Amino acid sequence: MSCRANEEELELSRKSILRAETQAEKSSLSGFDLFEGLPASQLLKVEQNTRVQEFAEGDILFELGGTGQELYLLEAGRVQTYRMMGDKKLVIADLEALAVLGEMGCIGQCVYHCAARATERSIIRLVPRKDLETLMDQFPQVTRRLLDLVGRRYALKPFAQMQYRIAFAREQCVHAHASCGGQLLEAAAV
Q1: Which of 20, 77, 85, 171 is the most exposed place for a label (fewest CB within 10 A)?
Q2: Are 118 and 61 in contact (CB under 8 A)?
Q3: How many Cα atoms occupy the beta-carbon half-sphere of 54 within 13 Å?
Q4: In Å, what is the CA distance from 93 to each residue of 27, 45, 163, 167?
């Protein structure tokens, strides 16, 4: 084997090793906008404490009013977040891969303000609240991004807010009417 062939082989080996090291250093969290610009070493540290869970189509990830201790990172699949008003569903978001959800279960009182259901087979990475809090303390941009996400997701447009309030008021009227045996409408007619 010539000296030139040895040099080329060594160079290919070196590039292969560098490529493998780069891939090993890349965290699965780095694809999420929430963690953009954070050091790979920090993301890898957080990732060690995460767990990955598979959800089948129709599986419920969390319920309205439930308490949470984890942030959900949608790695693959689709998830819908929503609220029910009687028999009406108000869709908050239809989410695809690389979306973040369950944020309300990790801040403040840790109560979910909606429910989430897998609309197809989905792979979710669960980040413990304590690790998210550590990131938010060390990297204020994570806190800002999380607050932006909450604002975008829960600040309904005026028309949607009005529809939501009308649906809620209607359900309250139906419930009141049913609980008094229909006498409310009869008394109001007199």
Answers
A1: 20
A2: yes
A3: 2
A4: 26, 30, 16, 18
3-class DSSP state for residue 30?
A: helix
Instruction: Answer whether 67's CB lies under 8 Å from 105's CB.
Output: yes
What domains are there in the chain, each with its CATH number?
27-155 (2.60.120.10), 157-190 (no CATH)
Each residue's pLDDT tens digit in the chain (190 positions)? 565 656 666 565 555 444 434 444 568 899 999 999 999 999 999 999 999 999 999 999 999 999 999 999 999 999 999 999 888 898 989 999 999 999 988 888 899 989 999 999 999 999 999 999 999 999 999 999 998 988 887 775 555 556 666 766 676 666 666 666 655 455 444 4
Does the global pTM surpass 0.90? no
The residue with tokens 């084997």 is: 1
Q: Parallel, antiparallel, or unpaired for β 122-128 and 70-76?
A: antiparallel
Q: Rounded CA gap, 133 and 1, in Å?
A: 57
Task: Please report how the helices 129-138 and 140-154 are oriented relative to each other, as an axis angle in degrees rounded to 10.
Answer: 120
CA–CA separation, 190 and 151 (whole Å): 47
